[in-house]
Amino acid sequence: MSADPLHRAGTPQREPATPPPSGPEASVIEVRRSARRRRTVSAYREGDRVVVLIPARMSEAEERRWVGVMLDKLAAQESKRILGDAELAERAERLSAQHLDGRARPASIRWVTNQNTRWGSCTPAEGSIRLSHRLQGMPEYVVDYVLLHELAHLLVPGHGPDFWRLLEAYPRTERARGYLEGVAAAGRLPHAPGARDE
C-alpha cells in the first residue's frame, strides 16, 4: 500500500436525510445554533445522535465545514481506545461482509510497529494483514479504509482497475485517502528553524 495515502437552538434543527455510514457519522447529526455562543464549536454524543453546537451567526458553508471538522475530532477521540488484534479481526470480517461479499478471509491481522513508510501491508499467500501502529488514534473511517484496502489485496494483489473496483463500495474511500495524504504531507514538512533531528 505504499503507493497510496494510504450540520439549532432558536431555529429548526436539521438532520441529514442519509447519515454517513461509519463512526460518529453513522449517527443522526443534529446541529444546534446558539446566539450566546460567539466563537466556539463543540460536538458530543446524545444517545444515537451526534450534536454539534455552533454560533448562530455562522454561515451555511462554515457550518458544513465545522460539522466535518467536529465529526473527525469525535471519531479520533472514540478511536483512541486501542483495538486489539481480535477486535481488528472482527472489524475485518464485518468490512469483508459489507463490501467484499465476505470473500476476503484473512488468516491473521495484527498491529505492527515496523511499518513507517506504509499504512498497511498484506501477504496474500499467507493470508496475513499488518496495520501500522501509526493508524491508532486516527478516525475510524480511516482505519476501516486501510483495513478494507488490505482485505481487497487478498483478492487482487496489485493496484489495477479490478482492485479499485473492489473499493468502490466503500463510501469513505476518497475522504480517507485525503486524510492519509494530509498526514503524509505533514510528515514531510521541513523542520522549523532551529529544530533538529535527535
From TrEMBL:
CDD domains on file: M48_yhfN_like
Where do the YgjP-like metallopeptidase domain residues begin and end?
A: 105-180
Pfam families under this entry?
Answer: YgjP-like
Against InterPro entries, the record matches this protein to: UTP_pyrophosphatase-like (IPR053136), YgjP-like_metallopeptidase (IPR002725)
Annotated region (Disordered), positions in chain: 1-27
What's the protein here called? M48 family metallopeptidase
Query: Could you read off the lineage of the organism from its UniProt record?
Result: Bacteria, Bacillati, Actinomycetota, Actinomycetes, Kitasatosporales
